[in-house]
Sequence to fold (142 residues):
Amino acid sequence: MSIEKTLSIIKPDATKRNITGKIISCFEEQGLSIVAQKRILLSESKAREFYAVHSEKPFFEDLVKYITSGPVVVQILEGQDAIARNRKIMGATNPEEAEEGTIRKQFALSVEANSVHGSDSQETAKSEIKFFFDNSEIAPID
Ligand code: ADP
Ligand code: MG
Fold:
């Protein structure tokens, strides 16, 4: 158990439906604190770079179109075991497989428009945080 930081993105399907606050409450009510946050429009090139690991997947082009289709809220969540905790709060990638009470079960529209992104390991958390934030934009808990 350790205090970690993880990168979270509230995706366009959620920002368009004005449910950013509802999603943030899920994090806060389950022990995660938002220590950095900004609302941005991802450029196509930045989206391609962020999702480069999926560039060979059949859904890649659609994914780039979707994630650039509206504003996203990028945020750093901090807390005990934040990386795994956030993945649990988010639920499975496909909302049909997500557990009751998870963000994706409650809010996701489809496997693509699944409302949130969360880093999946310590390595990706570190690189994804760096991808979006300068140190000066982060205000840690302590
Ligand atoms: P996760 O976001 O749960 O880590 P992945 O890293 O596997 O999931 O996929 C990244 C994102 O790509 C997903 O959150 C979703 O928006 C999209 N995606 C994943 N699988 C599919 C699919 N089969 N069809 C369409 N979009 C998908
Ligand atoms: Mg992933």
